[in-house]
Design brief:
mainly alpha; globular; 0% strand; 440 residues
Length: 440
């Protein structure tokens, strides 16, 4: 009975998340409470499960809030501008250099963990180059999306935060083994960018001005709003403090990798130093916090709701019951490799499940099942993260992707047709390499 209730709980949550009718917070909080009542648990017991779940994710929540604030401030002050501008200048006029530059620019832009800001920085800067060279704009979207996905394995990226919440562990500890996967992934992506650019040069020679039809579909951006946004961004830049901000950012990341203090505390100190350093006026400091607070609070609220969800499912033993029954049903030879099988199909899962549904509904079940056969929780999590994360920005469930499509004037259907199998193939190769080097 517990297995049936637990599965129904997860199915209902996934269906609600896919429908986009309610926010993840509502689904993750209310549905498990109803399920716990149906299973015969009292309100007091549910309260205890809630406390247990919240305790397990609190460090992740603190880290997320201050990491998003810190990197948001670093974007505001223009920390990454010189590097991005230099890359654009170097890559100008050469198809292969532009493709490689796209990977590097998007990787740097994604350091703040926000896909939206990555697209806002990369696409307006690079789209004119792609137009001038008659390169396919869907190649731009593919390379920016894949670069952002690889960098999204950072501790303050959404997928690792969700995974840490599910496993109840420190997100920095979870990230460290993935650093080499990120490095390998970026090297492979640069190689892929070169191959795709060579193919693009051949296609340009064949099709002539074919891309002009695609670009004509783009809706013109309202110039006044663009100018207003540019003026506001320019007023926040602090070019004279570039070196001070660089040292501060490197120090915070260094402390994070070193692990001498909790990640949330490191970012809290970073924010506390960055604000008065760049904006001595208290009103300006509060404005910076207010501008980035919505992103920080939304992610924190989702993680807290997930803590409640996982606390109730674990406390009621629904997850244990589902795992035990799945072990009885599935063929014995499949179960120890279930996490790898799910990881293999991780990118197509992005078309069916939202990020929240994948990490908060599917991951807990797979982790519970495979750990009974001697597979570590970390191995299970890494397989599912690496297999899925590359497809983040091919999913219709990604709000940042819709922003990117709007900026470039492109269509979701064409993007999926162009990018899906390239992203899927890349994720399978990266998963295979992760198995070979012992991460999975």
């Amino acid at each position: 009975m517990l297995s049936i209730i637990g599965l129904l709980t997860i199915v209902v949550i996934v269906a609600l998340l896919i429908s986009n009718k309610i926010t993840p917070i509502v689904a993750l909080v209310l549905v498990p409470i109803v399920s716990a009542f149906v299973a015969g648990f009292s309100f007091a017991e549910i309260g205890e499960f809630f406390n247990s779940g919240i305790d397990s994710v609190m460090s992740v929540v603190i880290m997320f809030i201050f990491a998003i604030l810190f990197f948001g401030i670093m974007q505001d002050v223009g920390l990454f501008d010189p590097l991005i501008n230099k890359m654009i200048a170097v890559s100008r006029g050469n198809v292969i250099a532009v493709a490689v530059g796209t990977v590097l620019i998007a990787s740097v832009a994604q350091l703040d963990g926000s896909g939206a800001s990555t697209f806002l920085i990369s696409i307006p800067a690079l789209l004119p180059l792609y137009k001038r060279l008659k390169m396919n704009p869907y190649l731009l979207l593919l390379l920016v999306g894949m670069s952002a996905s690889i960098m999204n394995m950072l501790p303050w990226g959404g997928p690792l935060g969700r995974t840490a919440a599910v496993l109840g562990m420190d997100v920095t500890e979870l990230w460290r083994p993935l650093i080499k996967v990120q490095v390998i992934g970026l090297v492979l992506l640069i190689g892929l960018a070169v191959l795709l650019a060579i193919r693009e040069k051949r296609l340009i020679a064949k099709r002539g001005d074919f891309n002009e039809e695609i670009y004509k579909e783009a809706q013109p951006v309202v110039k006044d709003s663009q100018d207003e946004a540019s003026l506001k961004a320019a007023s926040l830049r602090r070019p004279k403090l570039l070196w001070a901000n660089t040292i501060l950012a490197l120090a915070v990341i260094g402390v994070l990798v070193w692990g001498v203090i909790p990640a949330g505390f490191a970012f809290m100190i970073g924010v506390s130093l960055a604000l008065p350093l760049n904006y001595p006026n208290m009103k300006d400091q509060m404005d910076r916090i207010k501008d980035h607070a919505p992103s920080a609070l939304l992610m924190a609220a989702i993680i807290l709701a997930a803590g409640s969800f996982l606390g109730i499912l674990n406390g009621t033993l629904m997850l244990d019951s589902i795992a035990n029954d799945l072990v009885k049903i599935l063929p014995a030879f499949v179960i120890p490799y279930l996490h790898i099988i799910i990881g293999f199909f991780g990118v197509p899962f992005d078309l069916l499940l939202s990020t929240d549904a994948y990490y908060f509904a599917l991951l807990p079940i797979v982790e519970q099942v495979v750990t009974q056969f001697g597979v570590s929780s970390l191995s299970a999590a890494y397989a599912m993260v690496i297999g899925n994360i590359i497809g983040t920005f091919v999913s219709p469930f990604s709000p940042a992707l819709w922003l990117a499509l709007g900026l470039a004037g492109l269509e979701m259907g064409r993007h999926i047709r162009y990018s899906l199998f390239i992203m899927w193939g890349f994720s399978i190769v990266l998963l295979g390499i992760s198995i070979l080097i012992g991460v999975v």
